[in-house]
Amino acid sequence: MTETVTETVGQNTNGAHTPLLQITNLEVGFQTQRGLVPAVRGVSLSLYAGQTLAIVGESGSGKTTTAQAIINLLAGTGKITAGEILFEGRDLTQLSANEMQAVRGRQIGYVPQDPMSNLNPVWNIGYQVEEAIKSNSGLRGRDARQRTIEVLKEAGLSDAEDRLKQFPHQFSGGMRQRVLIGIGLSARPKLLIADEPTSALDVTVQRQILDHLATLTRDYGTSVLFITHDLGLAAERAEQLVVMYQGKVVESGPSQEILADPQHPYTQRLVAAAPSLASRRIQAKKNEDAAAPAIFSAGGTDTALIRRATDRELAASGTDLISVVGITKMYRIRKSGLKYDELLAVNDVSFGVKKGTTTAIVGESGSGKSTVAKLILQLENTTSGRIEFDGRDLAGLKGRELLNFRRRVQPVFQDPYGSLDPQYNVGNTIAEPLLAHKVGSSKERQKRVLELLDQVSLPAATQFRYPSELSGGQRQRIAIARALALKPDVLVLDEAVSALDVLVQGQILNLLTELQSELGLTYLFITHDLAVVRLVADNVCVMQKGRIVEAASTDDVFDNPRELYTQELLAAIPGAHFEFGR
Amino acid sequence: MPSSTQGRQPHFVAALEDTPIVAIDRLDETQKASSTWSDAWDSMRRRPTFWISSALILLVVIVALFPTLFTQTSPTANCLLGNSNGGPEADHPFGFTRQGCDIYARVIFGTQASVTVGLLATVIVTLFGIIVGSLAGYYGGFLDAIVSRIGDIFFAIPTVLGAIVLLSVLPDRSPIVIALVLSIFAWPQIARIMRGAVLSARNSDYVNASVALGVSKFKILIRHVVPNAIAPVIVIATVSLGTFIVAEATLSFLGIGLGGGIMSWGNDISQAQTGIRTAPQVLMYPAAALSVTVLAFLMLGDVVRDALDPQARARR
Amino acid sequence: MLWYTGKRLLQMIPVFFGATFLIYFMVFSLPGDPIAALFGDHPPSPAVIEQIRAEYNLDEPFFVQYLIYIGGFFQGDLGTTYSGRAVSDVMAAAFPITARLALLALAMEAVAGIFVGLVAGLRKGKFFDASALVVSLLLISVPTFVIGFVLQYVFAINLGWARTTVSGAAPWSELILPALVLASVSFAYIVRLTRASVSDNLSADFVRTATAKGLSRPRVVTVHVLRNSLVPVVTFLGVDLGSLMVGAIVTEGIFNINGVGGTVFKAIRLGEGPTVVSFIAVMVVIFVVANLLVDLLYAALDPRIRYAK
After folding, report:
1. Which residues in A lie closer than 8 A to residue B214 (C-beta atoms)?
2. Residue B119: which CATH number?
3. Do the interacting molecules here have an ipTM over 0.90?
4. Number of Cα atoms under 13 Å in the Cβ half of residue C37
5. Domain A1-107+189-260 has what CATH class?
6. pLDDT digits (tens, 9 = 90+) for B37-82
7. B162 touching C, CB under 8 A?
8. Looking at CA atoms only, how far is residue C235 from chain A in angstroms?
9. What angle do the packed helices C227-254 and C87-122 form, to 10 degrees?
10. Which candidate from A73, A106, A132 shows the least CB-CB separation from C208?
């Protein structure tokens, strides 16, 4: 596979067309107790001066390892076992520790993934930026300080002078990421490696920061190696794409070409699963081919769609199953001393959910969307307002009645790693609600567990497994099976697919859609991801700072967003205006 | 879309045979099921340290329970002053104390008191700490405030210092009393650790999920919270068994530990110190027995910690 | 920081009263005659009993006794020894010696412990690391008094490099051996703690980022790894002061040092209850105050604590 690349690169080597960075047949392995485990298996890529190249792949594809291998940031047991990394003609794999130190920061900058853990909590921001400047330039004392302020201002911290003495925990995630970008670019390197620089941030913040990064790198003529799991983002930000899968490059070339016409089956899958705005709501359709399920049925005119449409119309005429009227939730946050700050997490929120439909509540972090979920689930009490379920006020439900309510409204939480008790095997986890509500004999419960596992497409043997042995997607299936155990009417899905890789996410969304049409479920779908909303929701409530700013049908919100905030959110979806080949 | 005319690269596609596509998120059915505890067990039994320390602990416990299995010589009777500080001879492998008693027999018979104190204090402190810590951490509020403040007060008195004060007014100093006295000042450590672990387990999503499923609050504590919070306590308990044995020996050395009539390593070391210039071996044998026992519990604690903390395992 | 200091000071008040009350309670309100219990096998003369009854106001109700005692405490009246001397006077003579011993031990254990722990953490799995681990385990499992006797036997009796007992004035040079004994166990704990914390921090994201900035390896190790690893070590030092105090009693006893520990040691041996109780009450108060200082040091090292509300 790599021969083709080397050949073509060979043609380019004459004159000024030498790549800035050229990786050939790179192999990286990690030493474990079971021997050397390969993480990168023969990767080749080239990046020219002034270009942006994105490596796209799911978790475990080896994309981050490839990036870290370039300036040898591999974790302790990682080793480059073969291949060469030419940077301006010099093989970086052959450099001594001192030579590599001179390359890092000065010639190749690095912006890491998680802004929360990448700044040292015990040093102030100014110190951490200045340290980089001092080691990469001759600047000392006042000059270094001056340059620090400049760097931070360029990175978008307008009040840099006043914030030098502040510590990382006093900065928001977006601000920290700006600091990290500032550090990465502080020595005006020729190449910047940006490893998922914004994946931990809200979409609107993400957009601002990436725009800013693009401006800076264009101004300085910096090449960027961009690592991301998000195909939309890659398409938008890079002219060259490298798609990685299981430690290998499966497809590479100009972004537009790859997205418009993906050749490798894996790339095709990725493109098909990318929840862009071009896609429609998923319609329930059993897929016969289990080995390679088509994630989203592309068609729009089959009978299922028509049936769903009629179902929805029917439902629309009925009354609300859940109706939320003017609910407010206030938290008291301890300030210094005995003073308290009042935080209105949810402020006068009203909406209704009709039976058999999906209502999405969308918002960025701190918008109060998860609090709404907790209030509806009766995990917390409302400060004021009313929540009705099936015509009954939930306030003051106790004992038997509360149990009955819980039986009908079940949650699925965001973090598939946190929502299952690690000490409980899958069978016991799924049976727990049955036991709590004293449903059936132990034999009947056992039968129901198997039935549920089948419903979420997991083999019966899964019941003896523990959560730590399952993947994120499998755990989320278990969480869904547990939620379905009592045959509820409503599922409250709090960011239920956010932590999953895009292909797995697509699978789970498909499963949810199938279950909805099979069992007539009503979904309340809490998410920060508008692209996903388009795929699953009938109605959307957009939340900002505790309030609902816009509520309408999904098509309305996407086609005619009325509020500025909604428009911003839509614009911030990466790859929103990109035509995917599907 | 930024664009660049320079270095336009060809569209490369890998051959499908190079990277066969695996089904999305398939369950590996060949793998065998393993819980946290069975994983921990797997990790422990692969380490020689685990077997060495377990064997030592087992031996110590057997010696404590059945000292006569190991020696026929009485540690107290037949002490001849003529043998005072005498060297090893047949049937008396370690020699004699200043009073002319057989050192080996005294080491064997001294095991019981030392181990009893360590074991008893550990059991009391662990049970009490787990109960108090989980109730405080789980129910929070007023109960937590009260328990935590009381814990702070007991925590402010270092265990052995507190024990010295209390023992200086207690007439009876049997192993049970010593264990109780040590427990009085040592419980806040376990309670604090348990409280912290319970607090973090309480805020986990699986607890939220169970509440929403309709499981009762107390059942959640017993079924989900405590089992997930108990690992750090088990580690500390193993190690503190060793430290309690040291504490008893220290108290006995100071002359305020086990009553004079009770045979223990600490008492023997204490009595031997006057003759250290001329007969250091009298002191060394009980000291070695004590140290090896403590070492066994410390090593076991290390192995258990590594086994229960997957992060530590991954780091190794 | 100011707010944090204030909060810590406020939290110390109930602990201070609680702990002193607890000690007082244990001694004077347990069933039986506290005087008989305190003096054990050596009943004092009736005159002394009278003096003690007056001293501790034993004819007053228990709570009043405590209030009078704690009131005296604030005025510098720390109680009376068995032989009738004021505890404060004995303290004044003994404390400087113990303070020097403790400082020497603290310096030894901190410097050596952090250094060995750092090197072990950086060379995890190598020979140095394995030996450091074994040595630290051994040091922890051997009680201080045994280490004391062994070192005394080897260095003072066998080799003759040091004196078996420390002379009255306790010059620094004579304190080196006892300080070594006192430092041994805590040294082992510090090695283990530093090692674990260094190896955690080595794999921290911010250390990788620091490397990516182009910093030299020594700078990454000192400024980012070691600096962050000091935080848990300082916390440990606070808790460990308690065992340092117990260690001081044992060590000063073995080397016959006329410090606070030595005084307590002799008092315990001679069954002089009142002396023991008064001194330990003072030690507990010192422990509480020292922990406050350690907490402040901890906050100085970790800005997240400093700025916590």
Report:
1. 402-403, 406-407, 433, 436-437
2. 1.10.3720.10
3. no
4. 19
5. alpha beta
6. 777 888 888 888 899 999 999 999 998 888 888 777 777 766 766 6
7. yes
8. 15
9. 130
10. A73
